[in-house]
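User: quick one, fold this
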Amino acid sequence: MSDTVAGPGGAFPTALTDAPPPWAPPAADVASGPIELPVRVRFLECDPQGVLAHPRYLDLFDDTYMRLNTTRLGGFAAMMRGGIETLVVKTEVDFAKSARAEEELVVVLDLERLGRSSVTLRYRALGRDDGELRAQARTTYVCAHVGEGRSVAFPRWMRERYLGLGGPGSAPT
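Assistant:
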């Protein structure tokens, strides 16, 4: 397998290697444990009742995934130039308690399940002050070759970083 991928900007280090490619954060610089994203519910995100509108939770969860991707995997643009992307294949959300305008939440992302070419991540939106669950989601992504849509196995370096999230899917089986 080549160490580079041809692209519009010329050759670029491939993501499909066991070791992290040069554009990914070095393992020593990657934190372990769940991703936590503090957010404040903005009024414009609320319905007429002053409650965070249900589709906006998906935005919060996606922002948290972007934090994971940027801080631990090197970012979407670099991954795509390196020949791989992660595609959403399933999302399900369970709502537990309303979040209201100006409320502060913490979105926590960890690992629920890691397969050969798919990963299911768990998102929990918790009240910052009371720690109570507002909503929980599970999203399954598949690792694929850019533009081809066919799945490929996660490279070892990506698997290690997903396992580093902790959560129910990080326990040895």
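User: anything notable?
Assistant: The two ends are 30 Å apart (CA to CA).
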